[in-house]
Design a protein that fits this description.
Blueprint: E1 2-6, H1 8-11, E2 19-21, H2 26-36, H3 38-44, E3 55-59, E4 62-63, E5 79-84
Parallel strand pairs: 1-5
Antiparallel strand pairs: 1-2, 3-4, 3-5
Helix pairs in contact: 2-3
Length: 90
């Protein structure tokens, strides 16, 4: 099963410890996690299921390419990191 890790800033709002979940895509894995922690869904995806603009997901160190359907593939050993996107500077 893929390992899903949420940053501490998300954990301040919703208890979401790292967890393992089955699935062949980011969407499938996250849907399992959202079933376990329903409040988390609204922080990560919008009402249409797309990744929120201020969120970022990495799979095995690579930024996901499909922010709408979250169809990026994962395997049983994948590590998925869900975090708020950062911006700034001059």
């Amino acid at each position: 099963m893929a390992r899903v890790v949420f940053t501490q800033n998300l954990q301040r709002h919703v208890a979401c410890p790292p967890s393992d979940a089955p699935g062949a895509t980011v969407r499938e894995v996250l849907d399992v996690v959202f079933e376990r922690i329903p409040r988390l869904r609204g922080y990560v995806v919008d009402e249409t299921g797309c990744l929120r603009k201020h969120m970022t997901i990495f799979v095995d160190g690579e930024l996901v390419s499909d922010r709408r359907r979250l169809s990026d593939p994962v395997d049983a050993n994948s590590e998925i990191y869900v975090m708020q996107a950062l911006s700034g500077g001059c």
